[in-house]
Amino acid sequence: MLDMGFIRDIRKILKMLPKNRQNLLFSATMPNSISELAGSFLRDAVRVEITPEEVAVDRIDQHILFVKTSDKKYLLTTLIKERNVDKAIVFTRTKHGANRLVKQLGHAEIEAVAIHGNKSQGARTKALSQFKSGEIPILIATDIASRGIDVDGISHVFNFDLPNIPESYVHRIGRTARAGKSGSAFGFCDDTESGYLVGIQRLLGHEIPVIEDHPYHFPKAIPKPGQKPGEVRKKKSRHSRAATRKQPDLRRERSDRRRADEGRSPRGNNPNRGRHNRPKNHHPNSSQKRGNRGNKNGSNRSRNSGGDSNRGERRRRR
What is the pTM of this model? Predict the structure, then answer.
């Protein structure tokens, strides 16, 4: 939460507090990035852990499913209906993704509600109350908005988007299998998230079982041997590269075909055509103006042969 922008508010509060004070920082998870950030305003801090970090819960049945990004919504709908899910949390990476997923599940006649930072406090309270009472079976949440949620009886956790921080995965799946009950956790991994899966499995110390027997299995999302944890940069497809190339001028082609049918040369074969090939001192109408002046003077001279002598005679008469 500090990394998402709350650090500015905390620093404003710290400026209002006396210099001699005692600071205490409580957090459910403490990744290295947050530890370094918190260390910027903590001095000689002592770290106290009530219980050792539980990397994996034995009562949670974990599975990974490799799938295309566009097929994730269909896979989620299939699992919810086939496994008769009655209370589950679905984690997404973005707030807009959570709202979009609520609509997509609604089209499949699955009731769901979303909570995230853009929702008002009243809307979040109402959504959480509906989820706790069982009125709505599916709660879609982001990591930030789900902090502090304590709901019993959650049977399934779906990682619709794998988290980029491995500790967040542990925090997510810990929402199920509480009070001595068992639970299931499913993670959807596309071809851009294979590096996140490598980091998660490195933290857990073992590989998560994979379910391949589903209609949306995507083998290209499987991590490559020796792949490093972290974000995977998606390569541009052949269609996207072709779209960036210069497209042909269809109007120019039609014009050239029409000129060829009329027996004229195509426009592109004339090297002197175009404003970029004109001389620097060229004026669009200069040749026309010079021609008009020349024709005018010439026509005067042709009509008034010996015009110069006539003008001399008129001057002498004056």
Answer: 0.62
